[in-house]
Task: structure prediction
Amino acid sequence: MDYMATEIVDIDRMPRGGPDASCVDRLLETDRLEYLDRDDVDEEKKRSVIRALEWTGEVFGNTERFARTVLDEVADVPDPKILELGAGHGALSRTLLEWHPSAELTVTDVELSSVQAMAAGELGEHPRATVREMDATAIDAAAGHFDLAVFVLSFHHLPPSLASQVIAEGTRVADKLLIIDLPRPPWPLHLIRLATMLPFAPWLPFVHDGVISSLRTYSPSALRALAAHADPSIDIELRGGLFSPQVAVVSRRPQSM
Ligand SMILES: C[S@@+](CC[C@H](N)C(=O)[O-])C[C@H]1O[C@@H](n2cnc3c(N)ncnc32)[C@H](O)[C@@H]1O
Result:
């Protein structure tokens, strides 16, 4: 049975597979950082990872798939205010602006070079877009300012205490926080996924980061525990997560009067 987030969890020591992770799953994680998260890595190497993410999102259809998921979440809001955290290259926000006639996008990343590159492109000129630096763990915005906050393929970058902080912050500034991330498959499938990537990891920075992402991504029970740690009154709805990306929609229950 899946973990129900009713027990108290020592969040800093929680495995990425969650409080109920199997012994093998607990071995399939790492404290190694992706190139994207390292200060000692050449900027051009990091930019190559970001460009590869943009390219794969376009070629494999994930950018459009994720844009549809985002728009479904704001389907009832006439002129939605959407915050994209960890936008990297900004392709998702560009698609949302193209598809929605009145959505306003605040497009952000913690990495200054990514923010500068996005601001220098189409997003920097768009009348309904604001591009700025922002840390998803400490969001510089008033409570309830956004209809939706979105964090795509980025949540696994953060250790549990900071990941939980993103849930607290995202649901403070927006009615809903949508997290889309790599799925964490059962360990036999996870081993196969790692085996297909590992031979290329020493040569291709994008695959190097992909292997680490795979080892750091959170399971459904981990996501529930992180949300409960952020605030026990937070609701989390999970979708996908086996062969498709893991989708989590997180929101605070309305306060009773
Ligand atoms: C793997 S990239 C994903 C980029 C893009 N969202 C995509 O789907 O391709 C992860 C992004 O998360 C950003 N990031 C990492 N920690 C962050 C934080 N604390 N706040 C905001 N962004 C963060 C990184 O700078 C990077 O751009």
Q: What stands out?
A: The chain has ten helices and seven strands. The CA atoms of residues 40 and 46 lie 11 Å apart.
